[in-house]
Structure formats: C-alpha cells, structure tokens
Amino acid sequence: MAPIERITMFKIPNEADRDRVLEQYKVLAKTATKDGKPYITTMAFGPTIPDPRNKGFNLAVKMTFASLDDMKYYDTECDAHKALKAVVGPVKEDIVSAYFESLV
C-alpha cells in the first residue's frame, strides 16, 4: 500500500489564534505517537502565502502517514490530535481536508 498524503487547510480570522494553532502543531509534531512511537512520517505546516486562489484559507498542513490505518488512528485516537482540535475548534471559521495515495 502506498503512503497516505493528507492536506488540511484552515480559515482562522485572528492572527493571534493562528499563531496558537501553529504552536500546537509544533507540540503535535513532537508528541503524536502510536504504540509509543512516532507514526506521522512527514509533516509540514505554516501560513499560506496570500493569493486569491486560497479562498481565504490562511493555514495549511501536509502530513504523510505510512497507512490509511495510521491516518484513521490520528483522526480517532491520537491524544496529540485531540489536544490540537481543542485549540482549533473554537477559533476556526472553516476547515477543509483531503487525503490520497500518491501515484508517484
């Protein structure tokens, strides 16, 4: 099975809230574990570069998981992700997420 690539974008109106979310992603990058080991293969995140094509989404995150099961664990069981959602939930205006198996 090919790795799973996941892209998530957020609309967070307040700059201070965006900074808090980015700080929480730094925490997640250090603390997300499954069976005591890191399981997110790669992660990149940051503010988007202003452009009309981003339709107001101002934070972007790209993660790679070794398997769909790992991504499902992230969504449903990961304590680090639960902590992130607690920070993001009250401040986000919108969120979009998509995932896929890379063909290359």
Polypeptide structure, described:
- This is Stress-response A/B barrel domain-containing protein.
- The chain is α+β, with helices and mostly antiparallel strands.
- The chain has one domain: 2-Layer Sandwich (Alpha-Beta Plaits), CATH 3.30.70.
- It is 35% helix and 34% strand.
- It has a four-stranded antiparallel β-sheet. Strands 2-3 form a two-stranded antiparallel sheet.
- A hairpin with a 2-residue loop joins strand 2 and strand 3.
- It is globular and about 35 Å long.
- It starts with a strand and ends with a strand.
- 13% of the residues are buried.
- The model has no long low-confidence stretch (mean pLDDT 97).
Q: How many domains make up the 3D coordinates?
A: 1
Radius of gyration: 14 Å
Strand composition percent: 25-35%
Query: Which sequence of strands runs across the widest sheet?
Result: 4-5-1-6
| CATH topology type | Alpha-Beta Plaits
Mean pLDDT: 97
Key attributes of the depicted protein:
104 residues, alpha+beta, Alpha-Beta Plaits, four-stranded antiparallel beta sheet, 3 helices, globular
